[in-house]
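User: I'm curious whether this sequence folds into something compact or stays loose and floppy. Could you predict its structure so I can see for myself?
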Amino acid sequence: MRRLCLVFLLLSGCSSGEPPSASWEMAAQGFYAAAISDDGEMAVVGSMNHGASMWRLADHERLFNWAHESGEFAELVAADFSPDGTTAVTTDPRTLVMWNTASGAAMNFWATPGVVLDVAVMNDNRHVLMGLDNHSALLFDAVSGDYKRTLLHEGEVASVAVDEAGDTALTGSDDYTAMLWQLSDGTVLNTYQHDNPVRCVALSPSGRYAFTAAQGDLVAIWDNESGSQLHELHHGINHGVVSARFSPDDRLLAVGYANRRIALYDVVSGRPMQTWDPGTRHAMRASGAAIIELAFTDGAALWALAGDGRLLRLRRS
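Assistant: Here's the prediction. I'll summarize afterward.
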């Protein structure tokens, strides 16, 4: 799940967070969508002035510029990396492109059967789960072009996530539900009910835990084995969940917000451990700095991409 999880919710009773340890400009006028690889080494961004591009984060070097049509900037709505980082997928509303991240070459172009809202790449570097506006999530073979499985909702599927093994998927829909699926046969394992559209979901790498956030409603961590809610993360006034990422060991959850905040939670206890506030890039333009993507690094740090075009490095205490 690597697109703007648009939800109006968030961090209640939050004082000013810590500033980032470093930041770099990656786009002059901001991002449409972004993804960071699981190892925290690469990012794909869709910027307002340069279209799609892939970056190496260690030295914030742009490696490739990617276009869905020759001579045209790609206006990305979603992007994702395969778990091993060798493949990336970018989508505009009606086109999906698979890329080789070593060479930067496009491997396959496909028209999509509906407007793409979100995308997740499987661990076999060929299957892609698309969240669509036609009330479905579609498991698609981006090598052969075959449709493998359709997961149905009663509303748009705005957010999708897949575990590292590729066994289970989580979908969030405007029908007020998040659903956990067994991908081998399309069985619904759990349904997580909300009172508003579910716009942001995440799965822990092992598939044990789920995160869901609904517009103006519940923001929670769930135990997928029991189907029970572990923690409701917010109470009172909220400001918008935009992105979420579990740590590789399932122990931590990073959440990004529309009000520029980032929060780190302990998954088992639900306790907030640390918060950051990267401020604004332009003092006279405070909007547009929503945290649209997060990733853990090998060290004690996080990467974050802000909608105003910045790459942020966040030191964990």
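Summary: Residues 7-15 have pLDDT under 50 and may be disordered. Residues 22-315 form a domain with the Methylamine Dehydrogenase; Chain H fold (CATH 2.130.10.10).
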